[in-house]
Amino acid sequence: MNKIEHIGIAVKDLQASNLLFEKLFGAPAYKEEEVASEGVKTSFFQNGPNKIELLEATNPESPIAKFIEKKGEGIHHIAFDVTDIVAEIARLEKEGFVVLNSVPKKGADNKWVAFLHPKSTNGVLIELCQEII
Fold first, then answer.
1. pTM of the predicted model, to two decimals?
2. Are 9 and 74 a contacting pair, CB within 8 Å?
3. Fewest CB within 10 A of the end CB: N or C in the chain?
4. How much is the pLDDT for 111?
5. Could you report the per-residue pLDDT of 57-102, keeping only the tens digit for each?
6. Residues 73, 66: Cα–Cα separation, whole Å
7. What is the CA 121 to chain-centroid distance, rounded?
8. CB 18 within 8 A of CB 43
9. How far apart are CA 101 and CA 79, in angstroms?
10. What is the average pLDDT across 12-34?
11. From start to end of the chain, where are the E strands?
């Protein structure tokens, strides 16, 4: 793993949260997009070298909707940049981590993504990200 790629925050209202984070960082989101396969709308903020992803559910069955229903708004995941996501998935599976999707899928912000189950990472959902070239 190379670095923290972003921190994902689950929100009920993306537009209201965008206004809040715009005030917090003094700059608007640099990108908004929908990831239909995950049932989510996202926006990304840059703060120095760090990125924050806000996630709003687009349907009540999406993982974000279920997360908010259970835990409320807040930090949903920490994403790490990796050079070779397929090799990293294999390495982590060999180390005993529970990988939620052993085949990377297209995520937001032009990334291949895979997730590690929080039960195998001290309660933190971990996302692996690799830039799609």
1. 0.93
2. yes
3. C
4. 96
5. 999 999 999 999 999 999 999 999 999 999 999 999 999 999 999 9
6. 11
7. 15
8. yes
9. 15
10. 97
11. 3-10, 31-35, 40-47, 50-57, 74-81, 105-106, 111-116, 125-131
**The pair of three-digit structure tokens given for residue 48, joined into one six-digit string:** 């120095």
What sign has the CA pseudo-torsion 77, 78, 79, 85? Answer: negative
Whether the CB-CB separation of 80 and 126 falls below 8 Å is answered with yes
pLDDT at res. 108: 93
Q: What is the DSSP string of 27-42?
A: S--SEEEEEGGGTEEE
Which residues, listed in sequence order, are joined to residue 80 by a DSSP beta bridge?
Answer: 4, 128
* CB-based contact 125:118 (threshold 8 Å): yes
Q: For 24-66, what is each residue's pLDDT tens digit?
A: 999 999 999 999 989 999 999 999 999 999 999 999 999 999 9
Q: Which two tokens stand for residue 61?
A: 């069955």
| Other beta carbons less than 10 A from residue 20's beta carbon | 13
